[in-house]
Amino acid sequence: MKKYISFFGLRLNMGLQYRVAAAAGIVTQFVWGFMECFVFRAFYETNPAAFPMEFKAMVSYIWLQQAFLAFFATWMMDNDIFDSILSGNIAYELCRPVSIYNMWFAKNAATRISRALLRCMPILIVAFILPEPFKMTLPKNILTFIVFMFTLALGLGVTIAFCMLVYIISFFTVSPQGVRIFFTSLVEFFCGAIVPIPFLPKPLKSIVELLPFAGMQNVPLRIYGGDIYGEELTRAVLLQTVWFVLLVLIGRGLCKIAEKKIVVQGG
Amino acid sequence: MITMENVCKSYKVAKRNAGMKEACKALFRRETETVKALSDVSFTINDSEMVGYIGPNGAGKSSTIKILSGILTPESGNCLVDGRVPWKNRIEHVKRIGVVFGQRSQLWWDVPVIDSFELLKDIYSIPKNEYINNLEELTGKLKLNELLRTPVRQLSLGQRMRCEIAASLLHSPKILFLDEPTIGLDAVSKLAVRDFIMNLNKEHKTTIILTTHDMQDIEALTRRIILIGKGRVLMDGTIDDMRRLAASNEASDAEKSLDKIVAALYQQLNIL
């Protein structure tokens, strides 16, 4: 276990040195966040009764989404990993006494966490001092906040476990681009990154809420604003956990198969 | 001890003719050809031996190294390295071997060399004392003092290769695979690397398998040479055996350079 933690630490330190990228990211996320706020404000003002969330919860959802974009954006995949598969540098990773799955999982977690650490604070601070109605609010009580933190971590786990499947599938294809684009566009829609899941039509919504993608940003961000609570909260957390375990198991199984039939070409 | 018995490995290669029409056809029916990278390779290498493994490009040298280091699984044949089947239990196997691929890098690009070493210490669970001793010895012998605090991306190739070799020896492996370790190096670095390999074999009795296209490497380092071509072992002997084999066809090559002898040999054996 220690080896994976050290590797995580090294990657985390590495991630924290990219300051210009973080500054650029923060600016983009502010612009994007404001744009979303205005769009949803316009919807809300047209017909508040048809708006499926409280507007306050919606604002928190948007700002948290921007602050923790690096946690949940499935399109932010680790190009190093695709490169190592394409170029055959994976040979070296296979020469070490480590599990490829754990190593890549640690690497992804480190990249995402370091990116979010650099970006979340400025965004959250500004979001808290904005004028109404775009001001972000605190959660109802401390318990909600604790559950939010827990599901945030679990959501990160589900996102990484899902991305791991995409990495592993690219062992079996010549180029990872196709698989990558297919899966990321699918996920972007179903995880609530484009519009939150409550905005989807009823029949679709009840299906989407059962998919693993709902366990990514949807659960923590809605818990924070108080949109998911009580019995629904228990169910959501349970579903998140089940998907996390399931995705990890599938990923590990696939990884075993991939390692056996791997072909390292060239050199 | 390393034994390979009748090891075979083949790759599928997609083939098509040039042109748009052919490319469209390939969308529906892909023609693949099976290329035999290794057919029936057998040899035995004893502990603390140093062996040069040579052959033209595409002969199967790297495939052999990859099988021995547990990366590739062969289709048939047996292979034992110190009693272990490399691909059966990869993680247990690679703990005890060291590998250097001259054309790739195992150091983490954006951080100082010493960070990579510290991480390898945890990855191989190297005891603290052993790590400190090894690091000290390797730093001295490979002259890494100035390099350890530099990020890898700012090292020259020769500097990087010295660090790569050190990285693969931190866990004191008994067996070391070197796949073209001197590729692209200048004369000074080449000699430094050669000296180091020589001493490693003498002092630590490390078993070393070395693949290279540089015949001077072979001449300086190895007494035993295994020559492979088109996936088959064609010769297993000394440099003199190789000279004799090449001389059997032509009369006047006693004075020829090793490179010429090898080139003649490749042509003669029809393995290019």
List the helices and strands and how they pair.
The complex is a heterodimer of chains A (267) and B (272).
Chain A: H1 2-15, H2 19-46, H3 55-67, H4 69-72, H5 79-87, H6 90-94, H7 100-129, H8 142-169, H9 177-190, H10 202-208, H11 218-224, H12 230-261
Chain B: E1 2-15, H1 20-28, E2 31-45, E3 50-54, H2 61-68, E4 76-81, H3 90-94, E5 97-101, H4 113-123, H5 128-142, H6 157-167, E6 175-179, H7 187-204, E7 207-211, H8 215-221, E8 224-229, E9 232-237, H9 239-247, H10 258-268
Helix pairs in contact in B: 9-10
Description:
The complex is a heterodimer of chains A (267) and B (272). Chain A is globular, with a radius of gyration of 19 Å. The mean pLDDT of chain A is 91. The two termini of chain A are 32 Å apart. Chain A has one domain (2-261). In chain A, helix 8 (142-169) runs antiparallel to helix 11. In chain A, 72% of the residues lie in helices and 0% in strands. With 267 residues, chain A is mostly helical. Chain A contains 12 helices and no strands. Chain B is of the alpha/beta class. Chain B is built from 10 helices and 9 strands. Chain B has helices spanning 20-28, 61-68, 90-94, 113-123, 128-142, 157-167, 187-204, 215-221, 239-247, 258-268, and strands at residues 2-15, 31-45, 50-54, 76-81, 97-101, 175-179, 207-211, 224-229, 232-237. In chain B, strands 5-6-7-3-8-9 form a 6-stranded mixed sheet, with helices on both faces. In chain B, strands 2-1-4 form a 3-stranded antiparallel sheet, with helices on one face. In chain B, helix 9 packs across helix 10. Chain B starts with a strand and ends with a helix.
In short:
The complex is a heterodimer of chains A (267) and B (272). By secondary structure, chain A is mostly helical.
